[in-house]
Write a structure and sequence with these properties.
The complex is a heterodimer of chains A (529) and B (48).
Chain A: E1 15-19, H1 37-45, H2 54-69, H3 88-106, E2 111-115, H4 122-135, E3 142-147, H5 158-171, E4 176-180, E5 188-189, H6 199-207, H7 211-220, H8 226-239, H9 243-255, H10 261-279, H11 282-295, H12 303-326, H13 332-347, H14 353-372, H15 376-387, H16 390-394, H17 397-414, H18 433-449, H19 453-470, H20 473-485, H21 489-498, H22 508-511, H23 520-524
Parallel strand pairs in A: 1-3, 1-4, 2-3, 2-5
Helix pairs in contact in A: 2-3, 3-4, 5-7, 6-7, 6-8, 7-8, 8-9, 9-10, 10-11, 10-12, 11-12, 12-13, 12-14, 13-14, 14-15, 15-17, 17-18, 18-19, 18-20, 18-21, 19-20, 20-21
Chain B: H1 3-28, H2 36-44
Classes of the chains: A mainly alpha (529), B mainly alpha (48).
Chain lengths: 529, 48
């Protein structure tokens, strides 16, 4: 079946990315451009494409408005995480790419020349890259990109370097043939625009995966206090893979801030996470987190302090869990449970969203510990007890899908029948093929485990269709292998064991973000060293 | 597996079971009474 599918690279490399030779000093980037400014301009040039599917374009409008309006969220989860999950901006990238290609094709525009793509904002840049990928599905539209300089050049400037790294990841998809020739300004050009610089602007850029804009804004944002400035800069560099620089910036932030103990403790927590998750330096990370905890000994015993202390203990629990996964110390699993228990106890009665969010995170981590022990029934029961009211209360199809997936994946591993596939009730209604893909994987494997081979094949065939439309090699690889597993018990068992128990959030094939070499979830499950 | 390894593992199992019982008690606490705001928070929670 898989052999009948079209190759994922276009039959001919008809997307040309042409860059001028450049002089190294004249890079022009649209790092400060208003979010999706370039896309707005493109749509203005082809207003009739909206008429092809006006309803879908209105949904796209809402994603873009949401992205533009999303500042740091009210509980500032950005403070607690190293990686950026896709939000409205990335959903707009994917839907915008689909609608752009469909609209142009419907209007008979088979070739489009985009001049000065360096000048547009990074979200438009990603959207155009996804449009090129999607256009390849049926060779519907050929894109020619022109840049103001060579996509191959390196740069010392961190803003330019960040954009170059994104360009390289896009080029690595193989969707483009790259040429160096003088740019031809015959079509849409993208102007640079200015913006304001504040901490909120930087946070908004980070939330929207707009990293070069965040770096640009930080280079001018002199109003932000030094320690906070360094923290934001560190978070941005973590997102683009500059870990050594981020490490140094966090240490500078700690050194430059001695009065706000809670902020100091938080910086220790972030540094400990970086050491744990990106370097695997467990002993050093544990020392960092212990130092953070010591700082809190002088802080008042209130809810804010308890939340901060609990996050530090949660970080130490992760270290113990990773040590347990390495299998060198039989006492580490109990230590991980004890630290998570102590962290939970600190915030069990605390008021406020920060504490509530942390409680749910801690329980999600408890579920991971249960999984690591192979206690699938306990993991399932814990999920049901703590999260079962949430999806319905949220009344949001996407949230329901996230919960359904988690419940189903744990039930599959536990070997129970308390979950049944949602089928068409959820799939393909989300305008998010990544979620549909994983629900389809789960559905197919669920049927496979029950010996329902026909239904399993139907699910994997649907998965192949999703992979084709989303132009996802990773998805194609899975569903091709799964189709073969229908008659191969050992492969089926392996696929069930390898199925992520939580819906993967990031998808590098859509967001083109930097991917860490190994996710910590893989290490905890013993699937990565 | 030698005798001392076996002893350590048995002790760890005992510790673990005690912790699991305590955690069970903690989760029985009504800390997850779902309010409108909590639902969104819960679904955004991530594990490590």
């Amino acid at each position: 079946m898989g052999g009948q599918h079209r190759p994922f690279l276009p039959s001919r490399l008809n997307h040309v990315w042409a860059g001028g030779p450049g002089d190294g000093a004249n890079h022009r980037f649209g790092a400060t451009a208003h979010l999706f400014a370039g896309f707005d301009q493109l749509v203005e040039r082809f207003p009739e494409i909206r008429a092809v599917d006006e309803v879908a374009w209105q949904r796209l409008d809402s994603y873009i408005s949401q992205a533009r309006g999303d500042a740091a969220d009210h509980i500032d989860t950005l403070r607690r995480r190293l990686n950026r999950e896709p939000g409205a901006s990335i959903r707009a990238v994917e839907l915008g790419a689909e609608l752009l290609v469909a609209g142009l094709a419907a209007l008979g525009n088979e070739r489009l020349h985009l001049a000065d793509v360096d000048m547009t904002d990074t979200l438009t840049f990603r959207l155009l890259a996804r449009a090129a990928a999607r256009a390849g599905h049926a060779d519907r539209v050929t894109f020619r990109w022109s840049t103001t300089s060579s996509p191959f050049e390196t740069a010392d400037d961190p803003v330019i370097s960040a954009r170059r790294a994104l360009q390289t990841r896009v080029a690595d998809t193989g969707l483009f043939s790259l040429h160096l020739d003088p740019a031809q300004h015959t079509s849409t050009t993208f102007p640079a625009t200015t913006t304001t610089y504040s901490e909120t602007d930087v946070l908004r850029s980070l939330t929207n995966h707009n990293y070069d804009a965040a770096l640009h804004r930080l280079s001018d944002a002199i109003q932000i206090e030094e320690s906070r400035h360094n923290r934001l800069l560190a978070m941005t560099h973590i997102a683009i893979g500059n870990y050594d620089l981020a490490d140094r910036l966090l240490r500078d932030a700690i050194d430059s801030q001695a009065t706000d103990v809670l902020h100091q403790a938080h910086l220790h927590c972030l540094l400990g996470l970086l050491e744990t998750k990106r370097y695997g330096r467990l002993d050093a990370a544990d020392n960092t987190l212990r130092s953070g905890l010591s700082l809190l000994d002088t802080a008042p015993d209130d809810d804010r302090t308890r939340v901060e202390r609990s996050w530090l203990l949660n970080g130490r629990a992760l270290i113990a869990a990773l040590a347990s996964a390495r299998g060198t110390d039989a006492t580490q699993m109990a230590a991980a449970y004890k630290l998570t228990h102590d962290a939970l106890l600190l915030v069990v009665d605390s008021e406020g969203d920060e504490a509530a969010y942390l409680r749910y995170n801690l329980v999600a981590n408890l579920i991971v510990l249960h999984q690591m022990r192979g206690a699938w029934d306990t993991a399932l029961e814990t999920l049901q007890r703590s999260f079962h009211n949430a999806p319905n209360a949220a009344q949001d199809t996407r949230s329901v899908a996230v919960f359904e997936y988690r419940l189903g994946a744990l039930a599959l591993r536990a070997g129970t029948d308390i979950w049944t596939p949602p089928g068409h009730r959820l799939s393909l209604d989300l305008e998010d093929w990544h979620v549909d893909d994983y629900l389809t994987r789960l559905t197919g494997l669920w049927h496979l485990r029950r010996g329902q081979h026909t239904q399993a094949k139907e699910a994997f065939a649907k998965g192949l269709q999703i992979a084709e439309e989303g132009r996802s090699k990773a998805s194609l690889d899975f569903h091709v292998e799964a189709m073969a597993a229908v008659n191969d018990e050992p492969v089926a068992t392996r696929l069930i064991q390898q199925l992520p128990t939580k819906l993967p959030t990031n998808n590098a094939e859509i967001d083109f973000d930097f991917e860490p070499p190994a996710r910590v979830a893989e290490k905890l499950q013993g699937r990565a060293p | 597996m030698n005798a001392s390894t076996s002893t350590i593992e048995a002790q760890e199992q005992e510790v673990l079971e005690g912790l699991l019982a305590q955690l069970d008690g903690l989760l029985a606490n009504d800390m997850f009474a779902t309010q409108d705001g909590d639902a969104a928070l819960a679904l955004r929670a991530i594990n490590w």
